[in-house]
Structures are given as structure tokens and as C-alpha cells.
Design goal:
Distance between the termini: 25 Å
Strand content: 15-25%
CATH class: Alpha Beta
Helix content: 25-40%
Number of domains: 1
Largest sheet: 6 strands, mixed
Structural class: alpha/beta
Radius of gyration: 17 Å
Length: 209
């Protein structure tokens, strides 16, 4: 069976060398977008890495709180859980998919390196939906909010939250959580593929390392 691994992370900042993944979710679906399995994990703070207050304000996480730490894994334990989940769900063909996936991939690969953990995903293709959605927004198939760029020019947003707002595909739960955003991406891509008559054929944009 062909399987799709949709995933997202929430992090303590924007620099994989200084910050870390705090939550990670993977949603496995078939090519009809039916959910087959879900992984949703929290990762304890690594004591020597930084916490950016701006990032925490966006994702709403408090990684030192008792509520967060309950059930949270060490970074090493989290990598092992991801590997076991990956092994369990491999299909005859599978792809890893995310929205601006390079960001999440770099954080994940840095965690492998930091823990000297064998990178079992090093030969995988990580496929980015962002260029695809930008194409649909540019074509007018999805009408999102207008934002202002740093150069002062207006542009139509391709952020997941605005795509989901336009297509009414926001999953239940608070936005900017890894699991909710991953489920939202599945919903949003399914709706977009319908608008696009399925012409995407899962040809995204590889960020393979």
C-alpha cells in the first residue's frame, strides 16, 4: 500500500542549532487521505538549548510547565518513538510531506546529529506543499487574505492558517499545535486537489538532503 506521512513540528525558535523541537506529529494516510495512524509527541527541553519567547508566544507552549512535561519524552526517546512508528507504517511506497517542510526537516535532522542517532530518514524525500499552494493562490483557485511584504508590496498569503480559512478545512483543536496543523494540512491538500482536478499527482518539491 502507498502511504503518505504528513508531519509538522512546533519548536522553541527558528535556529536548529540553538533551538529544538517541542512537539511533533505525524499523520499517516493512504492516497485517498484516509487516516491510518497518528503519532503525537512532546519533547522535554534540552537544558543547553534556548527558548525564544517569540516562538513560544506563537505556539502557546510552556515547555517547563508540569502540564507539558507530563508524558513528554527526552529527545533521544522521541527519536526512538519516531523510528518505531516509521518502521511500523512503511508501505510499498511512502512519502514525507509538510508545509514549508525544509524547516521541520532541518530541526529533525539536527536532533539526529545532536544525539548521535542514526538518521534513518536520510534517504527519504521530504516533499513541500508550499510551492503547490502558492501556485493555486496565484492562479486564483484559492483566495486568501492579502498581506504586506517587507518591501511594501501586497501579496496573497499561502500560510496554512489562511489556506485553511479560505477552504474551511481547519481541523478541530487550537491552531499552531503540531497535530492540529498536520490534520489541517491533510484536509487542506485534499480540498485543493479537488479544486485542481487532482492534477498535482503528488508531484511536490523535494528537499532531499
Amino acid at each position: 500500500m502507498k502511504k503518505l506521512f504528513w508531519f509538522d513540528t512546533e519548536t522553541s525558535g527558528t535556529d536548529p542549532k540553538k533551538h529544538q523541537i517541542l512537539t511533533l506529529a505525524i499523520v499517516v494516510t493512504d492516497t485517498n487521505y484516509q487516516i491510518l495512524d497518528i503519532l503525537d509527541i512532546k519533547i522535554k527541553p534540552v537544558f543547553y538549548l534556548e527558548m525564544d519567547p517569540g516562538a513560544l508566544a506563537i505556539n502557546g507552549l510552556n515547555p517547563t510547565s508540569q502540564e507539558f512535561l507530563e508524558g513528554a519524552l527526552t529527545e533521544l526517546e522521541a527519536l526512538n518513538s519516531i523510528e518505531q512508528f516509521y518502521i511500523k507504517n512503511q508501505g510499498s511506497e511512502h512519502k514525507f510531506i509538510g508545509h514549508n517542510v525544509k524547516f521541520d526537516q532541518e530541526f529533525l535532522f539536527e536532533a539526529f546529529a545532536r544525539n548521535q542517532y542514526s538518521n534513518f530518514l536520510s534517504n527519504e524525500y521530504f516533499l513541500d506543499t508550499l510551492p503547490y499552494f502558492r501556485k493555486l493562490v496565484k492562479q486564483g483557485l484559492i483566495k486568501t487574505v492579502i498581506l504586506k511584504a517587507r518591501n511594501g508590496l501586497d501579496y496573497a498569503s499561502s500560510k496554512l492558517v489562511h489556506l485553511a480559512e479560505a477552504l474551511k478545512t481547519q481541523a478541530e483543536g487550537m491552531a499552531h499545535t503540531a497535530l492540529t496543523d498536520t490534520l489541517t494540512l491533510v484536509n487542506t491538500y485534499r480540498a485543493a486537489a479537488f479544486l485542481d482536478n487532482g492534477s498535482n499527482n503528488f508531484i511536490f518539491y523535494s528537499t532531499k538532503k
